[in-house]
Amino acid sequence: MQIAVLDRERCHPKRCHHECQYYCPPVRSGTPTIEFPVPDEQPVINEPLCIGCGICVHRCPFGAIKIIGLPDELNSEITHQYGLNSFRLYSLPILEQGKVTAILGQNGMGKTTTLKILSGLLVPNFGKYEEEASKDNVIRYFATSLMGTYFQDIYEGKRKAVLKDQNVDLIPRVVNGTLGEILRRNDPQNRFDDVVSQLEMQGSLDRDVKACSGGELQKLAIATTLLKDADIYLFDEMSSYLDVAERIRVAKIIQELSRTKTVMVVEHDLALMDWMADSVHLVYGQSGA
Length: 289
Ligand code: SF4
Ligand code: SF4
Description:
Layout: E1 2-6, H1 19-22, H2 25-28, E2 34-35, E3 44-45, H3 55-59, E4 65-69, E5 78-81, E6 88-90, E7 100-104, H4 111-119, H5 135-141, H6 146-155, E8 161-164, H7 171-174, H8 179-185, H9 192-198, H10 214-227, E9 232-236, H11 244-257, E10 262-266, H12 270-276, E11 279-282
Parallel strand pairs: 7-10, 7-11, 8-9, 9-10
Antiparallel strand pairs: 1-4, 2-3, 5-6
Helix pairs in contact: 5-6, 11-12
The protein binds iron/sulfur cluster (2 copies).
């Protein structure tokens, strides 16, 4: 089974000679593997007819195509697909309370999509991108696993998930004030003193967010996540910009949190993950595919 991913930003059918189609061996022998349904608009790659030769990948002058060979058994397990000839995510981790679940893998392999699905922000479509994704389908699909109850609780509002975003450097664009002011505005459980002390942020509370270093922004993002009243805490890359001592401090907080809450982390620091996580899910594949 081949899956084809067309990078729609890179594909410029009016600036090429449709080399992808011209050189495709099945097309040359009359099989409509690559078609242009609308002349000079982007092509459609008919995956079941593709033999995976990779010629289109090399012939496209803009490097707009990726062809990925996939074990047949995985094809029935698409969790989410954004559109025709686009990125696909296969499978999801199982989250358990009392354990730190971790995801390890390179960027562009679906970690952020996974976190969005687990937080309830994105409803998975199981590859049926033409239809509106249905929460009932998700609950039915996972009915025989722990994740069925997980999604039912999330969708019905019985459990709440919070997500610490990966892009902490964007924080100054969306919030104003000092770190102390921001944390106090996001403290529904009056846990300000505890969290500030745990993260050793006392010395930076008066700093304006626009003047903060990457490490200070990372700790701000972690702190605002910890302050929220939730059942499920998802951390997308929490160690970037932090030094070794700070990473260990955060890892201890995460472990402590997992005793009463469901916790998942996406992390690149292997040593930290090994030390902190109870189970690790490896994400593999091709970036953006
Ligand atoms: S995939 Fe490449 S060769 Fe094919 S239409 Fe797009 S830019 Fe042209
Ligand atoms: S990989 Fe080969 S068979 Fe498949 S679409 Fe590209 S050129 Fe055609």
